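User: Reviewer 2 asked us to show a designed sequence for the structure in our supplementary figure. I'm pasting the structure tokens here. Could you produce the per-position amino acids so we can include them in the response letter?
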């Protein structure tokens, strides 16, 4: 399958399942990671990331010309749902597993709390979803973990009582409003392991914006500690040219890596830090490091969320929930089909209290 038909097939397969039952070259280099930090949490989580990457070589990035395979390997939807059942259908089982433990909620944003849209700036959260997240945060510590810039995702969600981890977990900040679940020093929670890369990220952003301008529909989003090159609105025959432009720029920056998501090219610092590390750091900040009395629930829809799903599996605690209408390889335990089901799951969790 060519890299073009892989993306075309993604939309076709999603439609087909809609009716299914609910369920190092020379270049610029920068200081070594991790930089000196006031807190120890970032270092602890980074060590765990190094161990995880050693056993998961694919975590480092995607090879040139290797577009992500979006056609599901599990051709049988029922078989996939048996392995990753609906978190709504199995809600009582989830509650039973969490009984007597502190639930901590982790939520991705795009594709989880808001639908995937053509214009990234239009990924607005509905008031109903905001109310559902607000209700969860009243009962459980809650964090938003997104590839977006932290300030941008905060402006979408607009809930000051939450923890926010932007830039794929590389920019973490505690709540700015108190709730019964936030610690007195929650505002002091801050982790920015890629701060040394800010100048180069800005430089690459300016270069990529200029280099991709001739390609209609291509947009470059600056997420502070990482960049997103969106091609959802780019004609399919232009995808190869866009990737070549991006790779030609990155040849001069060997300390940056390229990964691929849902119609987006992600550019991040080559440090051992991801959404799984963000989850571990936040659990530590909440006082649950090495605790057996915590039950993390992580809900996300993209490849970058798999790092968090893997951490939960390695911990043997909590659950990962993949948001997807089609079967995909995942380390999540459960599934939900779309943001509307995420909203219903959150509401049921609140009602259970």
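Assistant: Here is a per-position design you can include in the supplement:
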């Amino acid at each position: 399958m060519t890299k073009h038909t892989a993306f075309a097939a993604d939309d076709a397969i999603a439609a087909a399942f809609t009716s299914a039952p609910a369920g190092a070259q020379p270049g610029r280099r920068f200081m070594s990671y991790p930089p000196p930090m006031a807190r120890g949490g970032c270092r602890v989580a980074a060590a765990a990331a190094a161990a995880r990457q050693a056993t998961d070589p694919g975590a480092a990035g995607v090879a040139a010309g290797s577009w992500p395979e979006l056609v599901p390997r599990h051709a049988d939807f029922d078989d996939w749902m048996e392995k990753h059942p609906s978190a709504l259908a199995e809600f009582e089982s989830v509650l039973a597993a969490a009984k007597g433990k502190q639930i901590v909620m982790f939520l991705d944003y795009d594709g989880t709390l808001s639908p995937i849209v053509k214009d990234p700036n239009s990924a607005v959260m509905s008031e109903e979803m905001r109310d559902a997240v607000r209700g969860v945060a009243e009962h459980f510590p809650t964090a938003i973990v997104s590839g977006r810039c932290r300030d941008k995702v905060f402006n979408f969600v607009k809930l000051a009582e939450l923890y926010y981890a932007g830039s794929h977990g590389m920019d973490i900040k505690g709540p700015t409003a108190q709730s019964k679940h936030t610690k007195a020093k929650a505002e002091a929670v801050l982790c920015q392991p890629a701060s040394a890369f800010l100048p180069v990220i800005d430089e690459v952003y300016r270069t990529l914006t200029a280099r991709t301008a001739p390609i209609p529909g291509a947009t470059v989003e600056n997420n502070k500690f990482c960049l997103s090159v969106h091609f959802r609105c780019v004609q399919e025959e232009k995808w190869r040219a866009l990737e070549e432009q991006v790779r030609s720029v990155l040849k001069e920056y060997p300390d940056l890596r390229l990964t691929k998501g849902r119609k987006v090219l992600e550019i991040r610092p080559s440090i051992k830090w991801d959404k799984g590390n963000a989850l571990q750091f936040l659990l530590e900040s909440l006082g649950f490091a090495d605790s057996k009395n915590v039950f993390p629930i992580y809900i996300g829809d993209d490849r970058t969320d798999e790092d968090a799903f893997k951490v939960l599996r390695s911990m043997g605690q909590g659950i990962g929930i993949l948001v997807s209408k089609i079967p995909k390889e995942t380390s999540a335990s459960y599934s939900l089909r779309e943001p509307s089901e995420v909203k219903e799951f959150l509401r049921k969790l609140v009602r259970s209290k």
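For the response letter, you might also mention the following. Residues 3-17 form the longest helix (15 residues). The chain is about 35% helix and 15% strand.
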